[in-house]
Amino acid sequence: MAKDVPVNAVKISLELVDLLRELDGAGVSEVAKRLDKPTSTIHDHLRTLEQQEYLVKEGDTYYVSTRFLQLGAHARSRQKVFKIARPEINELAQVTGEHANLMIEEHGVGVFLYRSRGPDAVRLDTHSGMRVPLQTTALGKSIMANRPREEVERILDRHGLEAVTDRSITDREELFDVLEEVRERGYSYDDEERVKGMRCVAAPILNEDDYAIAAVSVSGPKSRMREERFTEELPNQILKSANVIEVNLTYS
Amino acid sequence: MAKDVPVNAVKISLELVDLLRELDGAGVSEVAKRLDKPTSTIHDHLRTLEQQEYLVKEGDTYYVSTRFLQLGAHARSRQKVFKIARPEINELAQVTGEHANLMIEEHGVGVFLYRSRGPDAVRLDTHSGMRVPLQTTALGKSIMANRPREEVERILDRHGLEAVTDRSITDREELFDVLEEVRERGYSYDDEERVKGMRCVAAPILNEDDYAIAAVSVSGPKSRMREERFTEELPNQILKSANVIEVNLTYS
DNA sequence: ATCGACTTCCGGCCATAGCGGAAAGACATT
DNA sequence: AATGTCTTTCCGCTATGGCCGGAAGTCGAT
């Protein structure tokens, strides 16, 4: 096994924490089985993380601690686009009645920074901090469409084009064609490419150099996302919100 | 130096992350100076954390990444008291106009799980995930007052009684006297013990064994927190909310 | 009582974390 | 341009401590 990271012990602990999140808590032996390491090694790591207060132990089960809440809140509030976009996203959710979202790109994946539920919003699995492949959301496509092609290539080299539903885009050239359209049109669609039955409209937030730093969207059930509402009304509302955010970003 | 944790490398990385949060981003040499380690060592750790996507690098500065947002959101939603209390806290903020808060204890410190700003709420530094010494808030006192004395002793042994303002309680016996009163009265006060000019009223959330699992509070400026509102109206509203939460917790 | 499945502890080996030193850049200042 | 002072980054050695096998506890079930 080639040495891939400078400090392997840290890598193990981080994988361990993320596993505990996925499993929603686990004991020593279960973690050891999943990571294919001896229980004694895992035990050492769990103890360390617990002593440093990054995990909590209840009985023989370890859980992710709220220490991460503090770090996460900091990471989010550090993004100036977050605090400027938040009121606009709330507004968007209210007037459309649906979900409204804010996404940024980080390490080549899409991160939901914030979401607001409108009065008619359906139940949905998206939550703050959720990470998804960029090409599977209208948000991600709006971002990629307004980045240099070579940067998008690098992201694809790193993450590939994993399909999430049977409608996901999986061909690289097809994706670039779509991105071209999106850039010209100014906003993007997602038609059940990530979640069955859901459609989505998104627009990018651009900086002074027309480089996408984020995207905003509205998403809802297919039944309500159609005809003029889908092709005219929602795009206009979203473009207006995106524009307000862009303006507020430059003058702040 | 005695070996204090099983995996020292992990400890270094975790301290590093927390330092980056405090500093709101930093370069290699600044971190190295603060942690009193060689730059080469710090460099190894920063690279590892960045490769694992727990940090982001912008130019020569490393920042905490939104990876923590996902972990934090999980850690919070894991607490059933959070999702049950949230609507009640929002309600409390609306009817009182002030800040309303939810706190739990973790590793012997108070953690703000959620807060809601009412229409008249003043600017305040509290935020989700914030960690404070228990004895410096009405919330913390409500929790400690409804825990076995030996458990409180253990917490104090570990964390001491650090003063935050000149009104903070610093004497152990004095604290236990206060806690005794709080338990009998059913709710607790904070009169500028953490933040100058702010007062706070809190009530515990108890489980079936009368063991405090959390606390709710309302906090506001001294000028509005006085006379009957402070001694009657707010305590009653908070006790009512706490009771609703307790009931919803048992039947769910 | 005996088992089984877990967590925890212990002690040793050798991979590797941590470090010093040097190289490669960045950025002023002269 | 050239020099000096900051960085960050790289490289390779060495002693240490991370990792592991195995044993000892712990708990519940049968």
TrEMBL record, chains A, B:
InterPro entries hit by this protein: GAF-like_dom_sf (IPR029016), HTH_MetabolicPath_Reg (IPR050707), Tscrpt_reg_IclR_C (IPR014757), Tscrpt_reg_IclR_N (IPR005471), WH-like_DNA-bd_sf (IPR036388), WH_DNA-bd_sf (IPR036390)
Record Pfam families: HTH_IclR, IclR_C
GO terms classed as biological process: negative regulation of DNA-templated transcription
GO molecular function: DNA binding; DNA-binding transcription factor activity
Protein's UniProt keywords contain Disulfide bond: no
Signal peptide range in chain numbering: none
Organism (species): Haloferax marisrubri
Membrane-spanning intervals of the chain: none
Domain IclR-ED positions: 67-251
Keywords: DNA-binding, Transcription, Transcription regulation
Descriptive protein name: IclR family transcriptional regulator
